[in-house]
Amino acid sequence: KLGHQENDHVDLDELISALPREKGFGSLTLILYRNFWCPSKVFPAVHSFCRHFMARDSEIILACKPKSGTTWLKALAFSALRRDVFPPSTASHPLMSSNPHELVPFFEYTVYGQAGELLDLGSFSTPRLLATHIPHDSLPESVRQSGCRVIYICRNPLDTIVSFWHFAGQVWPKVWSSGQSPKEEYFDYCCRGIEGFGPFWDHILGYWKASLEGPNRVLFLKYEDLKEDTAGNLKRIAEFMGVPFSEEEEGDGVIEEIVKLCSLSSLKELEVNKTGKRAISFIDNNTYFRKGEIGDWVNHLTPAMAEKLESIMEEKLSPFGLKF
Ligand code: A3P
């Protein structure tokens, strides 16, 4: 059984009370678990995932920190992987009626969360396509030791913070408006690394190093590169998943069809993404689609904030050759 594990709750309270915790932004409580700050609400699911998940070698896992382009990557990977069954040009394509988060469920929100009771992962076609926000070195042993493949996407932390601000304002309007100056407060938490699934530098570096050590096991993508050359990166994604586009498909424009199907402008206008709810928990589907621009942070961060975050990125990421 992959959903809730009955025996987990027995020692869960004890475990939680023994772990370091911090008050995060708003009313969030963060628990330091397996070296990352885990939001307390998903802690039981994260714990079950880490304890019980047995990865198959064929598994394909999409990984990212929130607001880095998860929704887009899910749409692209799903469309490329399942194109034999669901050609991208068909009106009945699953993306027309389902939010990408329904098609590629998260371990910690869905599979091992409450909705996991309704999911039968055993019935998913092989290879299974699943997702997580958990950092690389904190993934279940079976994921790291098996032959399963991981596709990671990250994004300039300046834009990720701004994207999260907007998301939080929609999803938790009360929490967001209760702080004295919520944006500054959240920014400060991020700079100190105390944010859900953070610190962001450890998150990015973990997958970066794993991709250098095992390029066939971890594909490392940047949101910015995906925007600049969506078709080229979609080809890389398909190849990595073991389903490269044939010359005939390229000639028939299949790549362009997928790019268009998964574009922000297309997905945003679909009824399921305009009015649908609860692809994950209580969240409205429309909150996953906003501007999708590179560098929107200039409209929201003060020069002093940008300078502070850039110096953290310089110190933590640049030594490893990572720049945004
Ligand atoms: P902005 O808030 O900067 O617009 P996530 O999917 O990880 O939650 O990230 C959300 C961010 O990705 C949002 O960024 C959102 O607009 C953008 N996004 C969602 N779908 C996209 C798509 N199909 N193409 C490009 N960007 C997309």
From TrEMBL:
A GO term for molecular function: sulfotransferase activity
- Cite the SUPFAM superfamilies for this sequence: P-loop containing nucleoside triphosphate hydrolases
Residues forming coiled coils: none
Pfam families (UniProt xref): Sulfotransfer_1
Stated name of the protein? Cytosolic sulfotransferase 15-like
Organism equals Punica granatum
Lineage, top ranks: Eukaryota, Viridiplantae, Streptophyta, Embryophyta, Tracheophyta
